[in-house]
Write a structure and sequence with these properties.
The structure is a single chain. The chain contains 28 helices and 11 strands. It is an alpha+beta fold and 673 residues long. It has 2 domains: 296 residues, Collagenase (Catalytic Domain); 228 residues, Orthogonal Bundle (Neutral endopeptidase, domain 2). A 4-stranded mixed β-sheet has the order 2-3-5-4. A hairpin with a 4-residue loop joins β7 and β8. α9 packs antiparallel against α16 and α17 packs across α18. It is globular, with a radius of gyration of 26 Å. It starts with 10 loop residues before the first helix and ends in an 18-residue tail after the last helix.
Length: 673
């Protein structure tokens, strides 16, 4: 969309329309979250969130619980009401309600799931056992990928990085049960212990499939050997953040030449992929390793591995013994959850995963007022104007790069609330008595939907998040930002709150997503979504030098006793946090210009702004979850998303009268935007 930036004057009017005089509910929630015994200049996160954290200890079914989870639980309660009403077997139900209701009913039917046992997986398990030779492996993998079994590698579609108007096929690394490749190789005591627990978990799953303990133990070792071999050739998470490294367009014949032991023709036929001659191979080195695994492992080993992959993919909807064992490792051992979440919460999430836009239609009707979308659009435009001014005023960037940056900003498309067009699920068969079958058919529906895009032009109106989602996002290949209805509620977006609090919360989140267009990844894409170097060499070097400051800063933070954060892994989010806060603060200053500064709850508007930011990140988490997230999450731990950002902002030090040398005042602050 093209934004009119002829004047900055309307900013105050736009922001004023999305805010109202503060109400007691917003004031009380803000004050109740505080820990006044803490010093804001020593640990602002504790000052802003200590009260909330004390009142909200970790629930038994949550390894991590914060304001995002709190809001998601509220949204999930609404979804439960929608789904329970839709699940009533009323012949007058419309097609949308019938689909989501029957899916939910089947998922909630634990007795029916127990009675069916493994019957839903039996055809695939039998096909694996019937595998006669490795020549039959490609067709079998094509079949399993169709139903969501991620064995060996993955095939999907994506925008061409060099021609964002077109979708191309994308082959990528996969086939590993642990969260990411480094889990197979870290040699610290906790990682070694976790790998041992994983092998025991795989063994127990084989036993539940009916294998004798000794045979199950041998099979688990085989699985670990194959997955470790795949991981050895896989790209690490930090490397995968570099668009240049994951864009490797080649002819299909070139990929086939790299994997002579794997025939792509029967694979693509069984996967029902449309014809294509070229594709992106996200990690060419991985497929070299995949070739070695295909060539070196016996057909018996492949059968063992594929049996595990099948049961692993569907464990959540199998009989209780499988669900419990799956949770014992992936919930308890990996993240520190003490108990499984209630069945209804899991089933609501599964409907959102597989029928998200059907369920989302009903959620929007129930929970998203029409005026909220209009007001959100106004606020986004206000933040875009602030970022435009910030870019123009940068002292370290040359005019040539500024011109391109502003052109990119003008091209950003805003997706607010819910899609303009809803996904059509009419081709998806849903039964109220077949939970596993529903999941498999939904996987197949989505696999074919994604592959069906190959060779076709981009549909810009399509969404990648469902409306109830408590999240937001920026897509550099689309050059758009998305704010689902699910996040446009307190504490992020509160019509009763004052301007300082709102701009520190949803304003900074909007600024965060806009800044992603100019973080270490986003800056590599132009306004049309194509990967392109639009920076002068001088400006690129200055950006990298400034980004290195943030890498060093976040490398110094401790996630849990024996694990540090990874500054390179979290760089994009840290850049976006800092930029989002800065432009949201600019918007607040424009709003307050020439006005009397009235306080709320004893805090100035500027202080409330920083409280708004901090309090959306209040959370508690287990040590296991902290360790897990530090190793796989591109976001820094919440404490450091707050303290790490405000320590770089002189505006924070001024607002809270922090003296030089205070922990929340960095001697040499990092700044890009």
């Amino acid at each position: 969309m093209i934004i009119d930036r002829s004047s900055i004057a309307p900013l105050a009017l736009i922001v004023a329309t999305i805010s109202a005089p503060s109400g007691l509910a917003a004031e009380s929630a803000t004050v109740a979250a505080l820990d006044r015994s803490a010093d804001a200049c020593t640990d602002f996160y504790q000052f802003a969130c200590g009260g909330w954290r004390a009142k909200n200890p970790l629930p038994g079914d949550q390894p991590r619980f914060g304001r995002f989870n709190e809001l998601a639980d509220g949204n999930r309660t609404i979804l439960r009401e929608i789904l329970e009403a839709a699940a009533k077997d009323d012949p007058k139900r419309d097609p949308v309600d019938r689909k989501i209701g029957d899916y939910y009913a089947a998922c909630m039917d634990e007795a029916g799931i127990e009675a069916k046992g493994l019957s839903g997986l039996k055809p695939d398990l039998d096909r694996v056992l019937a595998l006669a030779s490795k020549a039959d492996l490609p067709a079998l993998l094509g079949h399993l990928h169709t139903f969501g079994v991620g064995a060996g590698f993955t095939l999907s579609s994506g925008q061409d990085f060099k021609d964002a108007t077109q979708f191309i096929a994308d082959a990528d690394q996969g086939g590993m049960g642990l969260p990411e490749r480094d889990y197979y190789f870290r040699d610290d005591a906790k990682s070694v212990e976790l790998r041992k627990a994983y092998v025991v978990h795989v063994q127990r799953m084989f036993e539940l499939l009916g294998d004798a303990p000794a045979a199950a133990a041998k099979s688990a070792s085989t699985v670990m050997e194959i997955e470790t071999a795949l991981a050895r050739s896989a790209m690490d998470l930090v490397s995968r953040r570099d668009p240049e490294k994951v864009y490797n367009k080649m002819l299909l014949s070139e990929l086939a030449a790299r994997t002579p032991s794997f025939d792509w023709t029967p694979y693509l036929k069984e996967a029902e992929a449309p014809a294509f001659s070229s594709l992106n191979v996200s990690d060419p080195g991985f497929f070299k390793g995949f070739e070695e695994v295909v060539k070196s492992r016996s057909i018996a080993d492949w059968k063992t591995y594929l049996r595990w992959q099948i049961v692993h993919a569907q464990a959540a909807l199998l009989p209780k013994a499988f669900v419990d064992e799956d949770f014992a490792f992936f919930g308890q051992a990996l993240t520190g959850a003490k108990e499984e979440r209630p069945r209804w919460k899991r089933c609501a999430d599964y409907v959102d995963d597989d029928l998200g836009e059907a369920l989302g239609r009903r959620y929007v009707e129930r929970a998203f007022a029409g005026q909220a979308k209009e007001r959100m659009v106004g606020l986004v435009q206000a933040l875009e104007r602030a970022l435009s001014r910030d870019i123009r005023d940068l002292t370290w960037m040359t005019d040539a790069t500024k011109k391109e940056a502003l052109r990119k900003l003008e091209a950003i498309v805003n997706k607010i609330g819910y899609p303009e067009i809803w996904r059509d699920y009419s081709a998806l068969e849903v039964s109220r008595t077949d939970a596993v079958g529903n999941s498999l058919r939904a996987n197949q529906f989505d696999f074919h939907r994604r592959l069906g895009k190959i060779g076709k032009p981009l549909e810009r109106r399509e969404w990648s998040m469902t409306p109830p989602t408590v999240n937001a996002g920026y897509n550099p290949n689309m050059n758009d930002i998305t704010f689902p209805a699910g996040i446009l509620q307190p504490p992020f977006f509160d019509m009763k709150a004052d301007d300082g609090l709102n701009l520190g919360a949803i304003g900074a989140v909007i600024g965060h997503e806009l800044t992603h267009g100019f973080d270490d990844q986003g800056r590599q894409f132009a306004g049309d979504g194509n990967m392109k170097d639009w920076w002068t060499a001088e400006d690129a070097k200055k950006f990298e030098d400034r980004a290195a400051c943030l890498v060093e800063q976040f490398d110094g933070y401790t996630a849990v006793s024996d694990v540090k954060l990874q500054g390179k892994l979290t760089l994009g989010e840290n850049v976006a946090d800092a930029g989002g806060m800065r432009i949201a603060y600019m918007a607040l200053m424009d709003l307050l210009a020439g006005k009397e500064r009235s306080g709320v709850d004893g805090f100035t508007p500027e202080q409330r702004f920083f409280l708004g930011w901090a309090q959306v990140w209040c959370e508690n988490l287990s040590d296991e979850s902290a360790r897990f997230l530090a190793q796989v999450d591109v976001h820094a731990q919440a404490r450091y998303r707050v303290n790490g950002v405000v320590a770089n902002l002189p505006e924070f030090a001024k607002a809270y009268a922090c003296k030089p040398g205070s922990p929340m005042v960095r001697e040499k602050p990092c700044r890009i935007w």
